[in-house]
Every structure is written in C-alpha cells, then in structure tokens.
Specification:
Length: 311
C-alpha cells in the first residue's frame, strides 16, 4: 500500500481526495489544507471542503498559515510517507519536504504548459478557449513547472462557467490521477518536459480584472462574465454605483458601449463594442442577487433606453 500525504483546499481537491480514499492501493497518512477563514458579512468561520472530507474519515488535518518553517512541516516529514499528492492546495511546498518523499505529484486544472498559476479555469473561460483540462505533473519548486505525467482535455461549452468547469474537471482530475498514479509510482510512465515557449500564466484574479470593459465585443464580455461566475463576480457601474452581473447571454443590437438599447418588464439588453448582451442575474449596490425580471420590477423602473453602464 502506498502511503500518501494529501494537500488541497477547495471542492476540486475534495473530489480528488475522495477518489484516493476509495482506492485501497493508498493510505492517507495526513491531510494538509489552508486555515479556516471567516467568510460573508457575518464573518462566520468556514472549514475548507478538503477538511470536511478529512474529518469525516478521521484523518489527521494540518492547517499551517505558511508551511515553510512551520512545526507542521517537521511533523509531516516524520510520517514516513511514500509520496505527496496536491490539488489546488494554494501554497508552495518547501524543497526539503519534496526531497523527503519518493514522489510528489500535482493535479492541475489546465492543459500545461498553458495557464500555470492559481486561476486556470477562470482564464480559460475569459480568453474564450474551446477546451479545458487537467494535467498530472511532477512537483518542483517552480510554480506548475514540473514534468507532465498525463493530461486530459474536455470541451468548453457556452453553458459552462467557473463553477460548472470546476465540477467537471474535478472528476477528470480524480480519474486521471487514479488511472495513472500506479504506473507512475512503479516507474512505468516517463514524464514529459513542458515546452518553455508555450508557457502562459493564470495568476489569481485581481479586483481590477473583475470590472467589465464595455468596449469589448459581446462574446468577450459574455466570456468575462462567466469566467467570473460564481466567484469573484464581474461588475460595472450603474448610475455611479457598483453593479454586479452574475449571468448574461449573447444578444443582437448595437449602440454606444454600455448603452441600454432594449428594456422591458423581463429584458434588459446592453450594447457592447460589437453586438450586445442581455442580462440574466444581477445585484445592484446594497441589494441581494436577483433575476433580471425582479430587478426590472424594482430598481429597473428608474432606467430608460439610452442610459449607460460603466459611467
């Protein structure tokens, strides 16, 4: 039986961990995840999805704010693990930890060498990619730069957003790992080096990147909105106040970028640099998230064709 330390944080990682727990070839000695955080307006402490899975299986959980130089690092190195598996953990692994095991592999949600970094799914959508995927790779000190063990792609559809792709790719990543890890551990798979000339990056989304640029095409704005949904959520300005747009669809029409060109009890269509989009789910400043019909029935009564978003 192969003894593993598992490291991960979000639901994507939890799916991978569940896969390992369901395979009797592996024993999970410990789980490492990010510290519990206060979330929402009420600042309620929420444990990570990976921690929830670990506790349900009575596994030891380590949550260092920073793994390097921590007491948790020494404890992990003393466990006698054969290897480490990470999936969206969120921290670099110290070299001495990598050197303390026979192997360390990462389940990364992109088709490397494209989209190294913390937000590969967001950028795949924002940039209008036709496919997304998962790469199983060896871990090295440099971010997502290790040799590739296996990869698998799936198509991106217009119905996809960050949430749906995370769910799909979590299953892809789980299966890719379980199918290839035994042969890799046995030395039967030869990893392939990444082509440096093809490397692109997907750093965590900055607040500035959440804002919509209405001069872009309707397809670009549509991709931007779904590339921010369900988090961190795209926004613009409406009558000088922050206005979040969760969901939209492509529409026809023309006008000045950001201009409302069609308005009814159930529809609000906004012109872009080329074409238009119809808003579906929104959140005005100081209000809860709502469908467009509910918005138009309330605050929307103050709007008129010719008003502009972004001003």
């Amino acid at each position: 039986m192969t003894k593993l330390i598992f490291m991960g944080t979000p639901a994507f990682s939890a799916t991978v961990l569940k896969g390992l727990l369901g395979d009797d070839q592996y024993e999970i000695l410990a789980v490492v995840t990010q510290p519990d955080r206060a979330v929402g307006r009420k600042k309620e402490i929420r444990v990570t999805p990976v921690k929830e899975v670990a506790l349900a299986h009575n596994l030891p959980v380590y949550q260092p704010e920073k793994l390097s130089g921590s007491p948790e690092l020494d404890a992990l190195m003393s466990l006698g693990a054969d290897g480490i598996v990470t999936a969206a953990f969120g921290q670099f692994l110290p070299t001495k930890l990598l050197n303390s095991v026979h192997f360390a592999v990462n389940v990364h949600a992109s088709l490397l060498p494209k989209y190294r970094g913390g937000a590969p799914i967001h950028y795949a959508l924002i940039n209008g990619e036709s496919e997304a995927g998962v790469t199983l790779m060896e871990m090295v000190k440099e971010m997502d730069a290790g040799d590739m063990i296996a990869k698998r792609a799936i198509p991106i559809t217009d119905e996809d957003n960050v949430g749906t792709l995370f769910e799909k790719l979590a299953v892809v990543g789980r299966d890719l790992l379980l199918e290839n890890l035994p042969a890799y551990v046995a030395g039967e798979l030869k990893p392939e080096a990444q082509d440096p000339s093809q490397v692109t990056f997907s750093p965590n989304i900055s607040p500035e990147e959440e804002r919509l640029d209405w001069t872009k095409t309707n397809r670009q704005i549509f991709n931007h909105i779904r590339g921010m949904y369900p988090w961190p959520v795209a926004h613009t300005l409406l009558k000088g106040e922050r206005f979040k747009i969760y969901e939209a669809r492509l529409a026809e029409g023309s006008g000045r970028p950001g201009e409302i060109i069609a308005l009814s009890k159930k529809e609000l269509v906004v012109a872009t640099g080329q074409g238009a989009i119809a808003l579906k789910t929104v959140q005005p400043a100081g209000k809860p998230r709502m469908g467009i019909a509910d918005f138009l029935n309330g605050f929307g009564r103050k709007l008129a064709v010719g008003d502009r978003f972004g001003e």
